[in-house]
TrEMBL record:
Pfam families: HTH_IclR, IclR_C. InterPro entries: ArsR-like_HTH, GAF-like_dom_sf, HTH_MetabolicPath_Reg, Tscrpt_reg_IclR_C, Tscrpt_reg_IclR_N, WH-like_DNA-bd_sf, WH_DNA-bd_sf. This is IclR family acetate operon transcriptional repressor. SMART domains: HTH_ICLR (SM00346).
């Protein structure tokens, strides 16, 4: 009996994503001993050939793992999901942990503070405490920011290997936002080395003229930079010494969050190679 040929999923990207998610749900609802192609196809209502194509893509990405038992190939959830699950829990938890510290930072500096993470190379704010008073410098949560002109972006890039940083910059680009924006990889890598050494980063009018942001990374128990915090102020009337003092303060509050996550303070990090 011939099998029905279904339309190519390449023409239906949303349907393809839905089916991939159906595969994960079917495997998650299974016994844990693995499922065959036929069982998965039946569970999600597609042909065996479609199920097989989906599974090969998901195995290649680590979302599904396959094992041969005798002559049969069985599929189960892959380890990529473990990593993503850890990250999701960490990011959800870090907002709750960091918000009281952000409030303390804002109280101490009278400046708006933010918490951000890297998302596909971009810096994305996931938490914020606004400064008191009628004049506030706010930024939307969830908006992707280019990392080369962002203090939180630089803080998160600073501990990454140079090759990984350059790959991100090549992919995202380094557009000039102001006359102060660093637009060459060499200049930014040098800036990131300084950031890694002192523990805080500057966006010194690099994204908006007249505006300075100072950020510092937050580390988890593995020593990875999983987030960064920052404060934002006007450049007018602030000396270089003032900004470095502000950087030291932001770093100290970032260290508090790191310690709550079981991570090291900046001073305890090993030097970069």
């Amino acid at each position: 009996m011939s099998e029905t040929t279904e339309p190519s999923d390449d023409k239906y990207p949303l349907r393809s994503v839905g089916r991939a998610l159906d595969v994960l749900q079917a495997l998650g609802a299974g016994s844990g001993n693995g499922m065959s192609v036929g069982e998965i196809a039946e569970a999600i209502g597609v042909s065996r050939s479609t199920a097989f194509t989906l599974l090969q893509t998901m195995v290649a990405r680590g979302f599904v793992a396959d094992t041969r038992i005798g002559g049969a190939r069985l599929y189960r959830l892959g380890l990529t999901l473990v990593h993503l699950g850890d990250r999701a829990v960490a990011e959800m938890g870090i907002t709750q942990i960091a918000t009281p510290i952000l409030q303390q930072l804002t109280d101490a500096t009278q400046l708006t503070s933010r918490l951000a993470v890297l998302d596909d190379g971009y810096a994305v704010a996931i938490g914020r405490v606004d400064a008191p008073g009628p004049f506030r410098m706010t930024a939307s949560l969830g908006r992707r920011e280019l990392p080369h002109c962002s203090s939180v972006g630089k803080s998160l890039l600073a501990r990454l290997p140079s090759e990984q940083v350059m790959a991100i910059l090549t992919r995202l680009g380094m557009p000039r936002r102001t006359e102060h924006t660093l637009t060459s990889q060499a200049a930014l890598i040098a800036d990131l080395r300084e950031t890694a050494a002192r523990g805080y980063a500057f966006d010194n009018e690099e994204d908006n003229i007249g505006v300075v942001c100072v950020g510092a990374a937050v580390y988890d128990r593995t020593g990875d930079a999983v987030a960064a915090i920052s404060v934002t102020c006007m450049k007018l009337g602030r000396s270089e010494d003032d900004l470095h003092q502000l950087g030291s303060a932001v770093r100290a509050y970032a260290d508090r969050i790191s310690l709550l996550l079981g991570g090291p303070a900046h001073s305890a990090l090993p030097p970069l190679a």
